[in-house]
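Appendix B, example 12.
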Amino acid sequence: MTSSNNQVQLLDGAMGTELMRVGLDLPLPIWSGDINLTHPDYVRKIHKAYLTGGADILTTNTFRTTPRAYRNNRYAEHEARLRSHESLEMAVKLARQAAGDGIIVAGSIAPLEDCYEPELFPGVEFAQREFRELAIWLQDAGVDALLFETMGCWPEIKTALSVTGDLQIPRWLSLILQNGNALLDGTDLTNVLPDIKDYGIEMVLLNCNLCSITAQAVDVLLTNWKGLWGVYPNVGAAMPTKEGVIEEKLTIEEFANEINKYLTSGANVVGACCGSNPDYISAAREAIDLAAEN
């Protein structure tokens, strides 16, 4: 779902760290998952701020709106399913309300446990059921695309893609990396990218990686993937904590310089991840517009 005239699309920035910045408490494991129900106005305002900054794509606040996250937070099974589904539907509603016409709403689906700890993958049997359910919930709620993001465990990726291939909705896959050559679980990108072609993915992205790692991985991506691609790195000088805290950030000017590199390499989508805010997205918008003029 990218522009037919080859115009680069701008993805929005961080949601969780923006919620933290305004003083909301985001305790693990649910993190931002319940905020859609407890503080919906905050989510809506952040979406609108990114649109004002020039975003073409809004990401739903569904990174942790999963029955598993609620069960891990001591909800009983039935209550966990009801609460997570209610929060997911509200997240899509809030994004849709902000988006209006002409804006893509991407439904975020994250690793089932912790995106920074791929070894916690709960196994194929659980993942088949849970990923399919989340995908159907998001499709039925009305997103334009499914965005499997911050995915760094190859068995988990294969499971998520295999059980959603029959859905009539575009699917995007975004990867988190150990270094410029490997997923977070150590799987070589040169093995992963050719295999992804078999799953009918519309676009491959790289997200929540340092800009330095992203730049290295883009070279590998371009060699092994010929389809649509994009990047939305975090803005840290070092990786975030599990809670999303970043001690030291790239300046907005430094981030814009990185975006220029991705644009020069031919990215179809650019954006930002943890630690970013609407100012970073505005800078990326300016970089896209300037590149289009030249």
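Residues 9-293 form a domain with the TIM Barrel fold (CATH 3.20.20.330). The chain has a mean pLDDT of 95.
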